[in-house]
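Workshop exercise sheet. Pairs work together: one partner reads the sequence aloud, the other fills in the structure field after running the prediction. Swap roles for the next sheet.
Pair: D.N. / O.F.
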Amino acid sequence: MPVRQYIGGIEHAILHLLYARFYTKALVDVGLAPEGLREPFARLFTQGMIRLDGKKMSKSKGNMIAPSTYFTTVGADALRLFHLFVGPPADDVDWTSQTDSVIDGCGRYLDRVWRLAVPSDDVIPERRSGEVTAEDLSIRQATHRLIDRVSRDYERWSYNTAVAACMEFVNTVQPYARGGGHADVVADAVDTLLLLLAPMTPHLAAEAWERRHGDHIHERQWPVSDPTLAVEETVTLVVQVNGKVRDRIEVDPAIGEVEAEQLALASSKVVEDLAGAAPRRVISRPPRLVNIVV
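Structure field:
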């Protein structure tokens, strides 16, 4: 005690949480719990609900979608990935007629991951070895940036953006691997991807890893990025006017608010769009965004 992390639905706020807090304080007061322990949980996270026809899915109400249907079509991992990808975990989600297409998309993505990790004998391109080229280095840098990004997303409960990062990474690595990339660079990229996906898609990751290495992925350590490779030389600063994108500028990741604002206001596209009007407000969030309000 205290429990490091409590995860539950919002309905727990007036049931489990209230009772647990009351009893903790009472037990301390009567000397049956450590003095000074006033809260049973160090952190609280309230996850959203999945709703069907506007109502929370519930076994007691009988308004549920049987997951077994998807086990036989796209697999359990695709269904897991959908739940993580569909939105921030604190938000409610409505199960609609479009849901099946999103789940199918997650299944197709995992098919791509499988083909990348465990290619058929007749489609394995000849890999290069020896000296690393600039293209090889860019893939290696993308791999270490992925480690940083997914690790941060996990820590802040942003699983949907972690999934998106892994999807983007496959779009980058797959054509490189098909084109006969450097053997060590491809292997490192694929192994890293599987390690990062393992908490989200444990079955596929474990099977692919065993076929590649012969041991168990869930006994492996979490990957650690090399700071010299993970650092971005430039990032894209998106410039908006009243919420609409007007320009994209490559900037230094360490750019400050004032400099980012000056660059945005000096953009020829922004100057043209403002047509002499003075901004009422400039919201600068370097290095990714500047929004000009007129």
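Discussion prompt: The mean pLDDT is 90. What would you look at next?
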